[in-house]
Amino acid sequence: MSNEKLTGQQIADAGLDGWAFLSVYGSGGLYTRIHTTTFTSGLQIVNAIGEAAEESNHHPDLDLRYARVDVRLSSHDADGVTERDLSLARRISAIAGAAGAEIDCRSVSHVELGLDTPDHEKLGPFWAAVLDGRYVTGEGWADVGDPNQALPLIWFQRSGREEPRQRWHPDVWVDPAQVRPRIDAALSAGGTLVSDEHAPAFWVLSDPDGNKVCLCTWQARD
């Protein structure tokens, strides 16, 4: 089975119903939510997934709650999604189906926090300290991340010093099919579509007070 990193389009072409390809900590992963009726049924599904993971020697991240199990799949050695992830995702879908549980990605999303600043070199170490995270820089970028990937990633966007200006904004990563419903819901709630210039990579919206948020997808990023 190939261990080459797949593009977003290749993942979409695989036709995995109920799974979303989202960017997390600069790397892509497959996500789904398995809806269960009891904690016990969720635990049984987790145990079955664990057996399948051991058989395939490929291990997902699992989050068990009373009425759901959240699953994330990625290949760390490839820094993204590979055929191994697609194969295990299909097995997990079959496990959920056999247990009578529904899977979906409609409610699955991931949040990153963007901080507009001309001086990330001054701010990054502070946020790494208070969050007990890691400040990492590269050519043209800088992040503060949680080594356990439990907290949202903070990334720094170069900006000027003009006032007034918004400094913090969330990036919400969603499945492409969920962009239109979320935009419609936001507009109905009094929001504004600020820009779709960079769609389908991201759309910029604002709340009634002008605070901005980006809806992001894998599209136009391969």
From TrEMBL:
Protein name: Putative pterin-4-alpha-carbinolamine dehydratase
Domain Glyoxalase-like: 114-216
InterPro entries (alphabetical): Glyas_Bleomycin-R_OHBP_Dase (IPR029068), Glyoxalase_6 (IPR041581), PCD_sf (IPR036428), Pterin_deHydtase (IPR001533)
Statement: the UniProt record of this protein carries the keyword Iron: no
EC assignment: 4.2.1.96
Single Gene Ontology BP annotation: tetrahydrobiopterin biosynthetic process
Keywords from the UniProt entry: Lyase
CDD domains recorded: PCD_DCoH (cd00488)
Domain of life: Bacteria
A single MF term (Gene Ontology): 4-alpha-hydroxytetrahydrobiopterin dehydratase activity
EC class (word): lyase
